[in-house]
Design a protein that fits this description.
Blueprint (H helix, E strand, L loop, with lengths): L1 E7 L4 H8 L10 H25 L5 E6 L22 H12 L6 H32 L3 H57 L4 E11 L7 H13 L4 E4 L2 E3 L5 E3 L5 E3 L2 E3 L3 E6 L2 H9 L4 H7 L3 E12 L17
Amino acid sequence: MVEAGPVEPADGAGEVQDAGKPEKPEKAEGPAAAAEEPEERAAAKSDAKPELEAEAAPEPVVRLAKAVEPECEPEPEPEPAVEPVAVDRSAGRRRLKAALWPPRMSRGQLVVALLLFSLGLGLAIQVRSTNDHHSQLRGARQEDLVRILDELDSRQQRLQQEKAELEQSLAKLENSSNQAKEAQEQTRKKATELGVLAGTVKATGPGIVLTVDDPQGQVKADMLLDTLQELRAAGAEAIQINDVRVVVNTYFTDVSGGGVQIDGKKVSQPYRFTVVGNPQDLTPALNIPGGVVRTLESHQARATITQQQKVVVDALVDLKTPQYAKPASK
């Protein structure tokens, strides 16, 4: 839109224009006045133009000012309205309740919870009883406190006396237990020794082996018995002839066809004596002049003695219960 700027008329032109121009009505205020203003300006221009041409006045210089129209900024598009989402609170509560109840606990967690509950309950009971006891003592009189202390002292003395008695009893029991153990050990040892003598237990130790060869068959039962007696006198502790164990009631008999029987068992030559004892005592006892070796040699038999650091007497006898003999009372 182009508006007419102010016109600078020549001399006399302004009077003609003022004379022919009707008086303008008072401008109305508001939007109505703004709408009527362009029409009045157009009417005034149309009335003034013939007059100016009639006067042949010089053409006024009209300065036109081009109104700079302000650039129209694009109106921002309205943002779409966001509809509020309805929140289902009851569904959230149900999910929370389903997650919390019933509680999902393993067996180990349940046991730990029960133990912690029991521990807490016990501590609470103990603290409460202690507080009750302290409150009772706090409110007690001096005479009552003295009496309680005397009772505690007496109780302590009784406990000390009981402790001393128990310690004495323990010492006696330990002594008796040691004595019983020692007695058992001695009994076991004695039984072993008696078993060796009775022929019910194997025996081992240093000794000798006496071998009697009788190719002529001149050795009789009495010769073997003399040899046994000589060995016992020299300190023999365990004796075995061939496979027969010699004990306190061992006996020798001659067989009619030749040979010797020991405890009812026939023993063939060579006769082999396995003896446990001191070799330094057994060998001289057999070799003395007029002793066992010389007697056997006089009957065409040959005796050989071998000393050994370890011989084993492993033949055993069956222990028989005496039919008539019984232990005598002291």
